[in-house]
Amino acid sequence: MIRPIPLLSLLVAAALAGCATQTPAPVAPAPTARPAEPVTPEVLFPEPAPEPVPEPATPTPPVTAPAGTPHPTGMPAFPAYPNEAAARAAVQRLLPGNVRDRAGWTNDIVNAFSALHLSYRADNFCAVMAIIEQESLWQADRAIPGLNQMVWKEIETRRQKYLIPKLVLDAALLKHSPNGRSYKDRIDSLRTEREMNDLFGDMIDELPYGKTLLAGKNPIRTGGPMQVSVAFAEQQAKYRPYPYPKKGTIRDEVFTRRGGIYFGTSILLDYPAPYSQMRYRFADFNAGRYASRNAAFQQAVARLSGRRLSADGDILSYDGGSAGASDTRAAVLSLAGRLGLSAGEIQRDLKLEKVGPFAGTPTYQRLFALADRQYGHQPRETLPQIQLTGPKIQRKITTAWFADRVEGRYRSCLARR
């Protein structure tokens, strides 16, 4: 006999507005023919040490961004605007004509660049704007059609699975929440992820056993105008202090325009990635930092090992949150003799796959040297092959589709210069 479970256990599974899941597509080992055109070789950039940002008294930027830094190999050189005033004027020109509150968006974009010490350049501004346009169409808290129906459908599925009497469930959801409305009413009127996040926060704080059953299990994983990962934002705030006065938690700040842009800009631009095109950063934004670099590494491994691998940008498996065994790791280990490396040395290097210095490890360097000798120069960047799925996704889309869509918006923005 299945025992009825507490109502709040059902509500954990009710919200469906989190990040899309990723299903990688397999990549067969490539043929042995030399490629017609080699890509630009990758240049190693050392991973910068975390740089603290002082807590400002007001939301205005505490510092002026540096004039500029050398651009990654293969990318066109865009001049840096000399100061904050010139940067604000440039952002105003680059914004699409239909954007409302242009001063507010400009302020939040430039402030994010200042706080992160990023160069004021048109390509950087347009990269951020392209993500905002793709993810939210310039709406700070965009409505999600049908969110309430999806939630009710999941609640009903769970109610039937665990034999919860409908009358009991209905009565529990009629309880008044802190804003004076019942939980049923709030679910019925759900429109945005921010509303869903607030709803779960109230359930955790107010309902019996809420903290026990729901604390740390809020299913809202992304939010804001750039659809920022809450987990990333919380981690970022641990080593780089959040530059604005907080009105709540870091999670709450993600759902604000200024916080969403700050953390989204950091994900997109605040790491050294020597890509030949901005579209690979866009792919990384969707699939994870260095996914485009790592997917190219996986393709080279597939050619050398003769194994069929998924070029998804995850060299190791992260089931349960920690790095572990994977098909790619097994394939690299099978090449240990040809690489002149021990299994321990390879595993040590592969653990660096999520940071810049991985490209300087013996495993990375020797594997590409071997692949280049055998097959001609191999690309050091490629779009990860990932199928995106989730309750908000109604058609077949991939990380490559996302990167290409954002790339089109990026080019339109640059044309407005």
UniProtKB/TrEMBL annotation:
Keywords: Signal. Residues 25-42 have a biased composition (Low complexity). InterPro entries: DUF1615. Residues 25-68 are annotated as: Disordered. Residues 1-25 form the signal peptide. Residues 47-64 have a biased composition (Pro residues). This is DUF1615 domain-containing protein.
